[in-house]
Amino acid sequence: MSQGHTRMLLNGNHAVAHGVKLARPMVVPVYPITPQTPIVEKISEFQLQGVMDADLMTMESEHSAMAACITASLTGVRVFTATASQGLMLMHEMLHYASGAQTPIVMCNVNRTIGSPWGFWPDQTDSLAQRDTGWIQYYCESAQESLDTILQAYWVAEKVLLPAMVMHEAFYVSHALETVDVPDQEIADTYLPPFSPYHRLDPEIGASWGNVVNQDMFYRHRQTLGQSMEKAIEVALEADMLWEKLTGRGYGVIEEHRCTDAEIIIATTGSMAGTAREAVDQLRDSGMPVGLLKVKLFRPFPVELVRRALDEIPRVIVLDRNFAPGTGGFLHQELKAALYGLKNGPVIYGYLTGVGGTNVPPDKIAGLVRESMEEEPVNSSVWKG
Amino acid sequence: MAYTIVEEKIFCSGHHACPGCNAALAFRYITNTLGQNTIAVVPPSCGAIISGPQPLSSMRIPVYQTTLEASAASAAGIKRALKAQGKDHINVVAIAGDGGTYDIGFQSLSSAAERNEDIIYICLDNEGYMNTGAQKSSSTPYLAYTTSTPGGKPTAKKNVAEIMAAHRIPYMATATTGYLDDLVYKVRKAKDIKGMRFIVILVPCLDGWGVADHEGAKISRLAVQTGVFPLYEVENGIKYALNYGSQGIPVSNYITRQKRYRHLSSEQIDEIQQVVNADWENFKVKFNA
Ligand code: SF4
C-alpha cells in the first residue's frame, strides 16, 4: 500500500519513537539506558517540537519509571516507556505488579546482554528472563516491524488488559538504518481508539487497588490473569489482520517461510529470523527442503499454531541468542514443551548461537543445518558459537 | 496555636491497627483534612494494614497500595495522569512509614522532590520497621533497642526533615500526634500549596516503643518538649518557622517511659541529653537568622 504514509530512513529505535508518537500516550515515564537511549531522546525531541503531546517524566530509575507507568495507567491514561538489559532487571518487581493490576502498559525493550560482566551486545536473556511476569512479549526483526508492533501491542494490551513488551535487538535493529513507512496519524487513529480503561483510580469511582487479599481472592486474580493471557493470542491475530488491512503489512504471531514441503525447519526469534530467512533461501537454492519458523509472539506462547506448523516435520533446528543456565536456550525449552505428545513430531536440535552478541551470518546458519544432518539430537542445548 | 480542626469523615472506625495506635490517629486527621477529593498511595507498612484488606477499606477515597520503594513515583504517576486529563483539582497523597521513606523509598522520594512533583508526601515516622516486628530503620534514634539492634542502635537518626528541606521543595514540615491542631494546620496548608510537599509526623508505636495504650499522645508531646523532635516548617528550603520546640524538660522524662531505652545506663542518658542540647542550640540559629 503506498498511500497514507511517509517513507523515512530510520533506525529501529527512532522507528519505535514514531510508533509511540502515533499511539498518542499521555504520560511517558522514562530512564535512559544504552542501547535504548535514542527512543527516549527522539520522544523528548518530539515533545519539544510540540508534535507529541505527552507528559514526559524524567525518572531516577527504571523501577520508578515502571511504578509511574502503572499508576498513570490505572488513573486512566495511555502510557509508554522503554528500557533494556539492567533496566529491565531493575523493573522486575514492578513488571509483576503491572500485570497483577492488569494495566495495559506498552514498553519497548531493546535486547542487550545482562551483567556481570558488562556488555552492550544483542542477547535476549534480559527479556526472556521476564517471560513469567505476565507480560505479552513480541520479538521483532526490523525497524518497520518494531514500529508496527508498538501500535499492535497497544491494540492487544488494551483489549485483554495486560501489559505488553515489544523487543528488538541491540544495534542490529536498534541502531541500524532502514527505510521505514511511517503511517499517517489518521491511520493510527483509525486503528487505535482513545484509551478507555475498565477500572481506574478516581475519587468519583472510589475503587482501590493493591490491598492485601485472602488466598481465595489471590487465586482468582491469578486465574483472571491467565484467562487474559489465553485470549491474547486470538486478539493478537485480530490486531495483526486489522493492521494489514490498513497498511498492507502483517506479521502473524508466528511466520512460516517456505515451510510447505519442508523437511527441516529452523526456528528462531528476533533479528536472527532475518538472517535465517537468508540462509533458508540459500539452502533452498542448493536443493535442501528447508523452511523458517519465526516465533514473533513469545508470550503467550502460541502452542497450537506452533504444533500445527511443526507437525509431521522430521527435523527442527532451534537457534537461541540467549541462555538460561541449567536448562539452555529459551526457545528450545519452549518448543520441546509445546510439541510434547505430538505423534509425528520432529526431532529437535537446540543450538546456542549468537549468545552475547557474537555474529551469526547466513552461512553459519546454513552450516549448522548441514551439521545437524551428521549429529544425533541431544536433549540439552549445544553451544555453537 | 489556635486552629480549628475541620474534619470531613473520610477515615472510618473498625480498622486493623493496634488499640491506641498513633499512626491510625494520624491517618484520621490527614485524610479527614484532605477530604473526599483525594487519592492516596500507601506502601507496605502499618498504614497498609490500617487502610484495610480487600475488599474492605477504612478510607472513603481510592487507595493504591504500591511496592515499598515506589510511593513517591507511584503518587507522581497518578498526579501526572490526572493533569493530563484536566483533573488537576484532585489531591494525591502518599502516606508511607519511615522504612518506606528514610530507607528503601528514599531514592524515589528524593527524585520526586527534585522534579517538584505536585504531590503531598507524608511519612508516619515510628522510628523502626514496626510492621515486621520492630527492627531498626535509619530513623531509629541513637541507642534505641530494636530486634535488629538488641544492644541499642549505634548510630544517629537520619535527619530526613533537613534533607528534604535541602531539596528546596515548596513545603516541608514536621508534626506529631501530640499536637493535632498543629498537625491538621500543616496538612491543610500543604493541601493549598502546589508542587512537592513533605510532612514527617512522629507517631509513637505503642508496641515497638514499649509504651502503654493510652500514652502515645503524651510521649509524642514529650518528644517535642524535651527538644528531641521540634515542630517546624520550611518553605522553599530557606524560610524556617518554629511551631513548638524545647521547653527545657530533661530528655530522661521522655526516655524512661519507653521500654526501648530501658537498657540504658545513666551515663548513656546523659550522653543523649548532651546531644539533644547541642542539636537544639545549632537548630535555633536557623530561626534567628
Ligand atoms: S505496630 Fe505500632 S504503628 Fe503498627 S499498628 Fe501497632 S501501634 Fe500502630
TrEMBL record, chain A:
Keyword Oxidoreductase, does the record have it?
Answer: yes
Q: Gene3D superfamilies given for it?
A: 3.40.50.920, 3.40.50.970
Locate the Pyruvate flavodoxin/ferredoxin oxidoreductase pyrimidine binding domain: which residues? Answer: 19-236
Gene Ontology biological-process entries: response to oxidative stress
- For this protein, what is any one GO molecular function term? oxidoreductase activity
Q: Does the keyword Membrane apply?
A: no
Q: Show where the Pyruvate:ferredoxin oxidoreductase core domain sits.
A: 262-365
Q: What is this protein called?
A: 2-oxoacid:ferredoxin oxidoreductase, alpha subunit
What high-level taxonomic lineage is stated for the organism?
Bacteria, Bacillati, Bacillota, Clostridia, Eubacteriales
